[in-house]
Amino acid sequence: MAKQARRVPLIGNKEKAVLHIAKVQLGMSEEAYRDMLDSVGCRSSVELDFSKYAQIMDRLKVAGFKHVHASAKRSGMHRPASEDKKEMLSKIEAILSDLGLSWAYADGIAKHMFGIELVRWTDNNQTYKILQALIYHQSRRKPEAG
């Protein structure tokens, strides 16, 4: 009984879309994109397996590609914040990440507390109160060690 060769799974449409978004975001020419694919032994994204895709993504990140999570896009958080709210929004993002929550959670707080759909639309005072609510939530979810 002969052993069958294991077939390596190829990337799906989601991964192909990310590659094309990166290409546009970085302003890559078609030739540069094809050269990058060729460097891992592929002529097209259709031929990429997950290992080669990871190699390509590493190169794209080094070149400056930033993949935006869907919840950040829905919340408008993929765009730079105004200078006066930048620090608070950065802290909110860090707390959400620490707790394993998405921007949708913070948007829910904004909706509950102020009737405003997105954190992005809150004023400085409201953003500060959302930050305080998340700090309180974080302190209750993660008891101090010791």
Put the structure in a nutshell.
By secondary structure, the protein is mainly α. The chain folds into 2 domains: 13-62; 70-141, no CATH class. It contains 7 helices and no strands.
Comma- or semicolon-separated keywords:
146 residues; mainly alpha; 7 helices; elongated
Task: Describe the fold and architecture.
This protein is an all-alpha fold and 146 residues long. The protein has two domains: 13-62; 70-141, no CATH class. It is built from seven helices and no strands. The chain has helices at residues 13-26, 30-38, 50-62, 70-75, 83-99, 103-114, 124-141. α1 (13-26) runs parallel beside α3 (50-62) and α5 runs parallel beside α7. The protein is elongated and about 50 Å long. The model has no long low-confidence stretch (mean pLDDT 84).
How do the helices and strands line up, and which of them pair or pack?
Blueprint lengths: L12 H14 L3 H9 L11 H13 L7 H6 L7 H17 L3 H12 L9 H18 L5
The total of helices stands at: 7
Which secondary-structure class do the elements indicate?
A: mainly alpha
Beta fraction:
under 5%
Question: How are helices and strands ordered from N to C?
Answer: HHHHHHH
Average pLDDT figure: 84
Unreliable spans are none
- The rough form would be described as elongated
End-to-end C-alpha gap: 60 Å
Number of domains: 2
| Percent helix range | 55-70%
Main sheet attributes: strand count, strand direction, barrel closure:
none
Please compute the radius of gyration using only Cα atoms.
Answer: 21 Å
- Number-wise, the strands total 0
